[in-house]
Structure formats: C-alpha cells, structure tokens
Design a protein that fits this description.
- The chain is mainly α and 119 residues long.
- The chain is 72% helix and 0% strand.
- The chain has helices at 3-32, 51-79, 84-110.
- It is elongated and about 50 Å long.
C-alpha cells in the first residue's frame, strides 16, 4: 500500500474506536449499576440461566477494554503521545483480547459440550 491509503485506514480505525469504547463502557455500566444481565456471556444471542454468576467477569472485560480504548484515544488525539504503530498495536490487541475473552466466557457459561436435546 502507498502512504496516503495507510493514513486513511489509520484514521478510519481511530474513528471506529469511539463507538467501540462507548458500547463497552455502556455495557459495563449496565451490568455494574443497573444490574442488567441480559448481555452477559451470550451464546447465540441468549444469556445463560445463571447470568449473575458470570456478570463480574463480563463487566471487568468491558470496563478494562473500554478504559484502555479511551486511554488510546486520549493519548493519540489529546496528547499525541503514541506513534501510529504503537496505538494501533495497543488498540488491536485490546479489541481481540476482549472479543476472545467474552467468547470464552459465553462458552464456559453455557457449557462446553454439545447441547442436550430436551425430551
């Protein structure tokens, strides 16, 4: 890729971090303050029957991920403290780790084996 296209993709990625941070922090707020467990450990869009048991973990994943992303946004836009490679690395690792952790928690909450047929 040439330089202008990389610059454009970097800005698109940076702008995409705003809604990501908003949704993660809003989800952490809903779990912590409003005690809404409807989005905890989802599998096929459904929470587990004992969602309250897994809520602290999901809240921590969302809160830590959202705070890191907000920190990256402040460091890049406010202080210009991170180079392009650094903030992309931090944001990318944060995105993937949060997604993988939430996926693993959802599988753990619903059971790791195949679903049982109810008769």
């Amino acid at each position: 890729m040439n330089l202008p296209s990389v610059f454009i993709f970097n800005w698109i990625f940076l702008i995409a971090l705003f809604p990501v941070a908003f949704f993660w922090l809003r989800r952490a707020y809903r779990i912590l303050v409003k005690r809404d467990f409807s989005e905890v450990a989802l599998k096929k869009g459904l929470p587990p029957p004992n969602a309250e048991k897994y809520a602290p973990y999901e809240m921590a994943f969302n809160l830590v991920g959202g705070v890191i992303i907000v920190g990256v946004l402040v460091a890049v836009l406010g202080f210009q403290a991170l180079s392009s490679e650094d903030w992309i690395a931090v944001a990318g690792v944060t995105l993937w780790m949060k997604l993988l952790a939430s996926f693993a928690l959802g599988r753990q909450a619903h059971g790791l084996g195949p679903g049982r047929k109810k008769s």
